[in-house]
Amino acid sequence: MGETVREAVLHCENITQRFSGLVAVSDVSMDVYTNEIVGVIGPNGAGKTTLFNDITGIYKPTEGKVFFGGEDITGMACHKITAKGMTRTFQNIRLFNNMMAIDNVLVGLHTATKSGIAESMLHLGRHRREEKESLARAEEVLKLTDLYDYRYHYADSLPYGLQRRLEIARALACHPKLILLDEPAAGMNEQETTDLLQFIRKLKSMGNTIILIEHDMRLVMNLCDRIYVLDHGTRIAEGTPDEVRKNPQVITAYLGEEV
Amino acid sequence: MLKKIINGWAKHQVAVTLVFLAFLILYPVLFHSYYLRNVAIQCLIYSLLSLALNLIMGYTGIVVLGMAAFYGIGAYALALLTTKLGISFLPAVALAVVITFCFGVLLALPTLRIQGNYLAIVTLGFCEIIRIVELNWVSLTNGPFGIKQIPAPDIFGIKSIFGLKLSKPEGKYYVVLILLVITVVILHNVLNSRSGRAWKSIKGDPIAARAMGINVFRYKVFAFAICAAIAGLAGAYYAAYTGYVDSTTFNYNQSILILSMTIMGGLGSIPGSIIGAIFFVILPEVLRWLGTFCGEWIVEWRQIIYGLILVIMIMFKSDGILGGFDLRQIHLYNKLVKEKEAEEKQNG
């Protein structure tokens, strides 16, 4: 990555999240740089999703700070953080099942548009222009994710693998600065996982920055530039896939005896 | 079956629209009886109310059991504005809409933090509070005697256009028809926009909606307020239409009737709301008419027949007759057909 000092897109400083007595995340720091794929791994209950929720503003961290693009976003409302260019997918798919695929992607463009309720009611200029632009962008994203043929299908009528991809498409629509993928390969078969791997590579080549929570080691080891390992809420290792693979602490905590 | 309706409608879009509009416009010409014209006006008023509820329940996913409150506020607002302040019909309607909008915001701000069934009960309570205020604030609302002699609709003092008297049922019919058409157009626009999609996404998954950058609370408040404003519009018209309002009209039963219309017609569907309203206004009239043939028993059994229809409906098609059917689907269907044709032309 050269000698130049790069500014972190995301900088987490000593994040701790407590739920009354339970410490879900404890003193975790991490940095994510532009056009990087960073993996967050750890056994079940290690606090990965909680960390995601702290970063995206669904929870407010009990202690610590989150900086996004140099700006302190700790405790900011979730929708405001999204508007700053951070989008995510969910571990258990959260699509809008009452809407068509294309509308799901259009919701993803909410922060990219501005027209208000009154403008839409009266069908005014800005609303019409934005609708046209949004529609074009949504179709572009659907083509990119190979979902174009399904654009008028309701989200819940899509097969599982496509639902996962639609969720990524929705997160991708507004040209986010950072995408957080929460177990994108969960429940996928070999073939689907391979497709997903290539797809995420494609996203990186297009200049996206991605944080990935994943259990599928093949995917993580093949994709990530750097990996953070969590166990019982604490960070036990950080480094390239090779470093992490060899780290004895990681091996005992998570990967088992033999990798 | 829904697919067949969409396909049929889409294929003959122009013809269907023309026939439908022609029927609506020519209705008073076709039917001269005072009774039938008033039934039609009732249908249109309830269409407005059912649409209002559908916006918040069918699209945003918030159950509201107190629609009669906003209906009543709109009616009393117009009654007071016209009788006490002497404001003419159109500005009074506009003011009544603004007033109910504000009431909607006022109710929404503290209560929308509550979720689901609890919120539904709060709105029910609000409905009762409003009814009791209407009944007991005698100096303002004239209490149980109601407000009489509310002037009929006019347009800035003009009482008839092209020989059409606005104080007669045929005139009043056109007034409410225009109000309904404007409401439908506005709702259709907004529901297929950024804001409409935000509402639908809140119904689909509030957490994902937040993660997509939607200010869920703000959109809920707006849905609530616009719902209230449309119900207020219906109320304002109702006051001018009957010329008399009292609190007994805006009770709990009214709220449940509107709820039944919305659910029966179809959640998340504009045509559904209108069909639901027509169905529930016409049903008792049809039963009464049937009573003249097969005896009075059918009228007495009316409530039970209502209940049966609702139960059967919920068992077999729980999202209503036209649940989820949107006018936009017709547009999309035609677009897809055109694309397919173009593709076939290219290939062969």
List the topology elements:
The complex is a heterodimer of chains A (259) and B (348).
Chain A lengths: L7 E12 L2 E12 L3 E5 L6 H9 L6 E6 L2 E2 L5 H6 L2 E3 L12 H8 L8 H6 L2 H20 L15 H13 L5 E5 L7 H16 L4 E4 L3 H7 L2 E6 L2 E6 L1 H6 L1 H8 L4
Parallel strand pairs in A: 3-8, 3-9, 6-7, 7-8
Antiparallel strand pairs in A: 1-2, 1-4, 4-5, 9-10
Helix pairs in contact in A: 3-5, 3-6
Chain B lengths: L1 H10 L1 H18 L3 H26 L7 H17 L5 H23 L4 H21 L1 H4 L18 E2 L2 E2 L3 H23 L2 H11 L1 H6 L4 H27 L9 H14 L4 H25 L2 H4 L1 H15 L10 H21 L1
Antiparallel strand pairs in B: 1-2
Helix pairs in contact in B: 1-16, 3-8, 3-11, 3-12, 3-13, 4-5, 4-6, 4-11, 5-11, 8-11, 9-11, 12-13
Can you characterise this structure?
The complex is a heterodimer of chains A (259) and B (348). Chain A is of the alpha/beta class and 259 residues long. Helix content of chain A is 38%, strand content 24%. Chain A has two domains: 1-85 and 177-259, P-loop containing nucleotide triphosphate hydrolases (Rossmann fold, 3-Layer(aba) Sandwich), CATH 3.40.50.300; 96-173, no CATH class. In chain A, the strands form two sheets. A six-stranded mixed sheet of chain A has the order 6-7-8-3-9-10, with helices on both faces. Chain A has a four-stranded antiparallel sheet with strand order 2-1-4-5, with helices on one face. In chain A, helix 3 packs across helix 5 (125-144) and helix 3 (101-108) packs parallel to helix 6. Chain B has one domain (2-343): ABC transporter involved in vitamin B12 uptake, BtuC (Orthogonal Bundle), CATH 1.10.3470. A two-stranded antiparallel sheet of chain B has the order 1-2. In chain B, helix 12 (252-265) crosses helix 13 (270-294). Chain A binds chain B through residues 56, 58, 77-80, 82-83, 87-88, 90, 94-99, 103, 106-108, 110-111, 113, 115-117, 120-123, 127, 130-131, 134, 152, 155, 170, 174, and chain B through 186, 189-190, 193-198, 200-201, 203-205, 207-216, 222, 226, 268, 324, 332, 336.
